[in-house]
Design goal:
Blueprint: H1 5-11, E1 17-20, E2 23-24, H2 35-47, H3 54-57, E3 58-60, E4 66-68, H4 77-93, H5 102-114, H6 127-140, E5 144-147, E6 170-175, E7 178-185, E8 196-199, E9 214-219, E10 225-229, H7 233-236, E11 254-264, E12 268-271, H8 274-282, H9 286-315, H10 322-347, E13 350-351, E14 359-360, H11 363-388, H12 408-414, H13 422-436, H14 439-449, H15 455-465, H16 468-479
Parallel strand pairs: 1-10, 5-8
Antiparallel strand pairs: 1-2, 3-4, 6-7, 7-11, 8-9, 9-12, 10-11, 13-14
């Protein structure tokens, strides 16, 4: 059975080593930098027990219990559609602002399980571990986080060429019962909230980098795993009224240091194999499953932002003006571009290993979504800022000004519009600012640009995964349809 929100919260009291603002956090479930987001995630788990959502968010496992639908290995296009419906139900709960919710890595793990043979290397066979890993995570309803990006030390050098051999995570010792690793990974988004962390890399490695060609999962509370958190927007939020998004949906990012961490063999998926290390993302559905989830979330986020734009236009009493209608139309066009790409990557789904096996989202369309989404997101924000104008700036410092008998008469007189009283207008524009202009919003704009890696990674992936031969043939067909001699008199 899926666990409840309270069970999830209790699981976080495991002694994990989280450092924040110069101090070690004793209990993240009550710390002001983390506790509201934890409860937002707990709310996702509770939704799996709601009668009208149970069959949306979960599926029946072979043993008769229920597991999160994100862990399902899809066998048909309709299975992909069902997974998307589940993704969207959770994404709507956070209005698209929790990008690394528990279903994100769950669907990647289902991608591993769809092609376990990819993990069979020349000297280490991770295939049985992959299947056991998938079963264990689904059965126990665990929140798998991940850290894949190496620190930005010297990007002109490979991992083995860095000035110190443990700046990037590597194996430092092999034991009969497992391995010991040391090094760091950056941008551990949501990792402090997880049960376990999948550690790996998406960087292409050279044969000399075999010590860095690893993939494994360890409990967050493993001895030697240390988190150094960035500034928490939740911690800085004055109230939910003033920062309704930052105060509840700041999934946090952290530097994750692995200081001589022991990993048992059964938790190792890839071991010192540069080919398998790269193949786990590109020769299984894992990465395109990432995109399926992320694209669904971004579509939901565009719906939310378009809704804010509509409410702002109505609050400003400009909703029926032709220029404003044009702005709203532009936003709805972008929204439906995101929606259409999600539907298309499902409709054009591909089999993983031939007929009769698992299916995966269309690779070329998935990679194209990565090119389009990050470019559209800043445009969406900019369009709504133009629509809102100075109303985003001229706001009271906090909700206290609406409660103070000296200031509330002034606000009620000067900050209002026809049909939109002061309290409603301030509440709306506070929400808009948190989505568009606050520090939390700035992080999200940057986040969406690099959500699935740097542009040079996914743009080249479109070329690699796309049907370039077909495009060339079509153009060549035109060229072959006429000759120079046909122009002779």
């Amino acid at each position: 059975m899926t666990r409840t929100g309270s069970e999830y919260i209790e699981s976080l009291r495991d002694g994990r080593e989280v450092w924040y603002d110069g101090e070690r956090v004793k209990d993240i479930t009550v710390h002001p930098a983390f506790h509201n987001t934890i409860r937002s995630i707990a709310g996702l788990y509770d939704r799996t027990h709601e009668p009208d959502l149970r069959d949306v968010l979960t599926v029946r496992a072979p043993d008769g219990g229920r597991v999160l639908r994100a862990y399902q290995v899809p066998m048909t296009r309709m299975d992909l559609v069902a997974k998307r419906v589940a993704f969207k139900a959770w994404a709507e709960a956070s209005f698209g602002f929790l990008g690394r919710s528990p279903d994100y890595m769950a669907t990647a793990i289902s991608g591993f399980a769809a092609a376990p043979h990819v993990f069979t290397g020349a000297t280490f066979d991770g295939a049985p571990n992959v299947l056991d890993f998938h079963a264990r995570m689904a059965r126990n309803d665990l929140f798998e986080a991940h850290t894949l990006v190496n620190p930005q030390i010297d990007r002109t050098k490979t991992p083995s060429q860095q000035e110190e051999d443990d700046l990037y995570l590597r194996v430092v010792r092999e034991r009969d019962d497992g391995i010991v690793v040391r090094g760091a990974k950056m941008v551990g988004t949501g990792a402090v909230f997880g049960d376990e962390i999948l550690v790996g890399t998406t960087q292409r490695l050279a044969p000399a980098d075999a010590d860095y060609a690893l993939s494994f999962s360890v409990p967050v509370s493993s001895p030697g795993v240390k988190f150094v958190s960035r500034a928490s927007y939740e911690d800085k939020a004055r109230s939910v009224f003033d920062y309704p998004l930052a105060s509840r949906f700041d999934e946090n990012d952290a530097l994750v240091v692995y200081d001589n961490v022991f990993v048992p063999w059964e938790n190792v998926l890839v071991y010192r194999d540069v080919d398998v290390c790269n193949s786990q993302w590109w020769k299984t559905p894992a990465f395109v499953n990432f995109v399926h989830h992320g694209a669904t979330r971004l579509w939901t986020k565009f719906e939310f932002l378009t809704g804010i734009a509509l409410l702002i236009a109505k609050a400003n009493n400009t909703a029926k003006l032709p220029p404003v209608q044009a702005q709203i139309g532009k936003l709805m066009g972008w929204l439906n571009t995101m929606r259409s790409m999600v539907l298309a990557l499902e409709a054009a789904c591909e089999t993983v290993d031939g007929p009769g096996g698992p299916v995966q989202p269309n690779k070329e369309i998935s990679c194209a979504q990565l090119a389009v989404g990050p470019e559209l997101y800043p445009q969406v924000l900019n369009e709504i800022k133009l629509l809102a104008g100075g109303g985003l700036i001229q706001l009271p410092a906090s909700f206290q000004d609406l409660l103070n008998p000296e200031t509330v008469p002034l606000l009620r007189k000067y900050i209002r519009s026809p049909g939109c009283p002061t309290e409603e207008r301030v509440k709306l524009f506070k929400l808009a600012w948190d989505a568009l202009g606050s520090e939390f919003a700035g992080r999200h704009e940057h986040y969406e640009r690099f959500y699935h890696g740097a542009p040079h990674v996914y743009l080249s992936a479109i070329v690699r995964e796309g049907d370039t031969d077909a495009y060339e043939r079509l153009a060549q067909t035109c060229l072959d349809g006429y000759e120079l001699h046909e122009e002779a008199p």
